[in-house]
Amino acid sequence: MTRLIIGVTGATGTVYAVRLLQLLQRTEIETHLVMSRWGQRTLLHETNYTREEVEALADHVHNANDQGAPISSGSFLTAGMMVVPCSVRSLAAIAHGLGEHLVHRAADVVLKERRKLLLAVREAPLSEIHLENMLRLSRMGAIICPPVPAFYQKPATLDDLVTQTCRRMLDQFGIHLDGERWSGEMAVGED
Predict the structure, then answer these.
(1) CATH 3.40.50.1950 for domain 3-171
(2) What's the pLDDT tens digit per position in 84-103?
(3) Using an 8 Å Cβ cutoff, are 131 and 92 in contact?
C-alpha cells in the first residue's frame, strides 16, 4: 500500500487539504495527516469542518508535537508529502531544516530521503525572501505548487475550482483520478 503524508499549516486554503483527503478516500492510498496548531485554527476559521471531522477523513492522524511519530523517520516508507496549504513560515522552516513541529520534521525527512515533497504555498504578494525560499526548495527537488485556480474548464462552483487544483496536485504523485480534464483544445476565435 502506498502511503502519503498530508501536512496542513496555518495559511489560508485549508479547504484544499480537506478535498485532498476526500479524494484520496476513493483510492488505495494510505493517508497520514498532521496539522499544525495554526492549521487547525485556520480550518475552524475558514470552513464548517471540525478538526475531528477532517481527522476522520485520514487513515492515520499524528499530533504535530509528536516528533517520535512514524512519519518523522526515513525508515517509514512513503510516496512523499504534500503540505497543503503551506504557510510562508513553514516554507522558511522547511527550506532551512528547522523542525519546529512534526509537519516541518516530516518534510525534512521526505527531502533527505529524496521523496516527493509538494508545497502549496499560500501568500500574496510574494517577497524576495519567499521567492528565495521557494527557489532553494525547488533546487532540492521540492515541487512548488501554489493553489492557483484554472478557469479553462469553465468551473461553475468553488468546489469545481478546489477539486481541479487538488487533482493537479495529485497528478504530481502519479495519482490520476477520474474526472473532467481539459482536452488541450482551445476555442477558435477571431484574430
Answers:
(1) yes
(2) 999 999 999 999 999 889 99
(3) no
pLDDT at 183: 72
Q: Residue holding cell 513560515?
A: 89
Q: How far apart are CA 24 and CA 18, in angstroms?
A: 10
Query: In 10 A of CB 123, how many CB atoms?
Result: 17
Residue 191 pLDDT level (bands cut at 50, 70, 90)? low
Contacts of 30 (CB under 8 A, 6+ apart): 1, 2, 3, 4, 59, 60
Place of cell 487539504: 17
DSSP 47: S
Q: For residues 139 and 141, give the distance between their C-alpha atoms in angstroms, rounded to a whole number.
A: 5
For residues 69 and 33, the answer to whether their CB atoms sit within 8 Å is no
Q: Which residues contact 69 (CB under 8 A, 6 or more apart)?
A: 34, 62, 63, 102, 106
pLDDT tens by residue, 22-56: 999 999 999 999 999 999 999 999 999 999 999 99
What is d(CA 188, CA 35) in angstroms, rounded to the nearest whole number?
A: 46
What phi and psi, each to the nearest 5 degrees, are found at residue 121? -70, 130
The residue that leads in pLDDT, 178 or 101, is 101
Q: How many residues does the chain have?
A: 191
Helix (H, G, I), strand (E, B) or coil at 71: helix
Query: Distance (Å, rounded) from C-alpha 173 to C-alpha 27?
Result: 13
